[in-house]
Amino acid sequence: MNKNFLIVYCHPYDNSFNHAELLAIKNNLNKHNIKFNVIDLYNDHFNPVYDSEELSLFHLGKTHDTLVVKYLKLLKESTDIIFITPIWWNSIPGMLKGFIDKVMKEGEGLTHTITKTGVKGLLNNLKHTYVFTTSTTPTFYFKLAMGNSIKKIFINKTLKQLGMKHIKWFNFGGITNSKITKRKRYLYNLNNLKLS
User: Fold this and answer.
1) pLDDT of residue 5
2) Are 76 and 125 within 8 A, CB to CB?
C-alpha cells in the first residue's frame, strides 16, 4: 500500500522552531518519495470556534465550513498522520483543539460513532500517528510535575478514541533556553527519522 501522510501543522509564526520542524519533516518525506498533504491551520485561516448553526449540525455529521469538508476528506484519504504543535499553557493550542472539535464528525463514514460505552473511532485508515511538540518547560518536568496532558489526554484519550494507532510522541523541551547546536541536531534527526 502506498503511503499518504497528512501533516496537521499548528503555529502562526514562520520563524518558529515548529516551522523548522515542519520543513525538516517535509524534506524527510520528499527524500523518501512519500506522498503527503499539509493542513496549515493558521495559514488556512481556519476558524476553530463553533457558531450555533455549525453546532446544530454536529449530530447529523454535517457542516457549513468548507475547510472542515476539505480536512475530513484529507483525513479519510490518508494512511498516516503527523501533528506539529507547540505546547501552550500545558496543553495543545486552542486552534488545534478547535480542529479536533469541529473536524472530528460523528457518523458512519466519518471519524467516529457513539456507542453505549462512548466513542468508537473510525479513523482506522491512519496506521501510524506522530506528535511533534515543543515546550518551554523541560520534557522531564512536563511529564513528571505538570500533569503530562499531551500523553494522558491528547494522545491516550482523544487520538486513540478516534482510532489512531501506533502513536509516537517527540517533544523538544526547554525550547526557549536551548542552544542552537541542540536545535540543529534535533532538526537533523527529524530529517533522518524513519517514518513508518
Assistant:
1) 98
2) yes
